[in-house]
Amino acid sequence: MKQGGNVNQERHSFMEKIQMVDFALVDLTLYLDTHPQDTQAIQQFNQLAVESRDLKTAYEQKYGPLRQYGGSFSGYPWSWGDAPWPWQM
Questions:
Q1: Does the model's pTM come out above 0.85?
Q2: Is 67 exposed, middle or buried (0-12, 13-18, 19+ CB in 10 A)?
Q3: Torsion over CA: 32, 37, 41, 43 (sign)
Q4: 72 within 8 A of 66, measured Cβ to Cβ
Q5: Which of 21, 74, 29 shows the shortest CA–CA distance to 66?
Q6: pLDDT digits (tens, 9 = 90+) for 31-75
Q7: Mean pLDDT across the stretch 5-33?
Q8: In this predicted model, what pLDDT tens digit does every residue of 77-88 receive, in sequence order?
Q9: d(C-alpha 45, C-alpha 30), whole Å
Q10: Among 69, 83, 89, 76, which Cα is nearest to 9's?
Q11: Distance between CA 21 and CA 9 in Å, rounded?
């Protein structure tokens, strides 16, 4: 039972990291809307975009699909119905 708790905690921590990076991307998007020539912010945005993509890919390899509408492939059997869904964590 303890191992299951550790796996859940690891999964939750992984998702939390993804959410933090994605929040920073949203914040930078809003900033860049009003400061489109800030090269440092653009560079930070691009670095975080790569980090977000890599985190999501690693998460999916370990826990299953995360992105919808073709952003994630499905294994067999179709696993989108498996809980918890990302917004339930």
A1: no
A2: middle
A3: positive
A4: yes
A5: 74
A6: 999 999 999 999 999 999 999 999 999 998 998 888 776 665 556
A7: 92
A8: 656 566 666 667
A9: 11
A10: 89
A11: 18
Look up residue 69 and give its two tokens. Answer: 């509408």
| DSSP for residue 68 | -
Phi, psi (degrees; rounded to nearest 5) at 32: -70, -20
Helix (H, G, I), strand (E, B) or coil at 58: helix
Residues 6+ apart with CB under 8 A from 41: 28, 31, 32, 35
* Domain coordinates in residue numbering, the chain: 2-65
Find tokens 């993804």 and name the residue.
18
